[in-house]
Each structure stands twice: as C-alpha cells, then as structure tokens.
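Format notes (please read before filing issues)

Several people have asked whether sequences and structure tokens are stored in separate files. They are not. Every record keeps both together, in the order shown below: the sequence lines, then the token lines. Line labels are part of the format and must not be stripped during preprocessing.
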Amino acid sequence: QVQLVESGGGLVQAGGSLRLSCAASGPTFSMYGMAWFRQAPGKEREFVAALSRSGESTTYQDSVKGRFTISRDNAENTVYLQMNSLEPEDTAVYYCAARESLLVERNRAYTGQSDYAYWGQGTQVTVSS
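Then the structure lines:
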C-alpha cells in the first residue's frame, strides 16, 4: 500500500507559477500510475493530469493543456505538477492519486477517479486576480 503526501500549494497571482509535489511511500513507486485531480469550492472533484507507470504517456484536462506538466522522479518517489500561467479558475484543492498498474498497462494514463485506489490529503492552490 502506498501513502501520498502533497506539498507546494499556496497563494499566487494570476499569470504566476507553482510546482506541486506528491511524495509516495514504499519501494514500488515505479509500479504506479499517477494523477492529479482538483476540487474547487462548491464543485465536484475533477481530473487534471495523469501519467502512466512508464512515464511515457500523459494526458491532461483540456483547460490545462499547454499550461500544466505532470512528471515523475522514480528515484525520489515523487510526482510533480508544474503549473504555469495560472488563472483564478485554477483555484482548488489539488489531490495526488495513485494506482498500481500491471506491466501490460504501463503506457496507459487513466483519467477516472475510480481508477485510483490511493489518495493524498490535498494541497490548497489559490490564484488571485
């Protein structure tokens, strides 16, 4: 079982950047597909970005394409979300999620919340206008 701890959230002006980190426990991090989701006040939690177990496949929500980048460092057991050109609409609690992926799934990036069994506690991102 993996435990996830997010960090890097904060308050930033519109147009600014933040990098979120998600540190995972356990020796088998490289076997997990990873993703970021977010939940804005009064809204449902939504998909943001996903990265396959292999690190070779990524997928993004349309509204963040070209602005956000998901990546992983298996040596550090960490997944990142680099967020550039932030907008007030990006304000939300950001959650890291993990799923243990079979070798046959290694190049697939999953986008559904039900695809992920493990979740972090979230980190707040606030973008002021």
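For reference, the curators noted about this record: The two ends are 40 Å apart (CA to CA). DSSP finds no helices and eleven strands in the chain.
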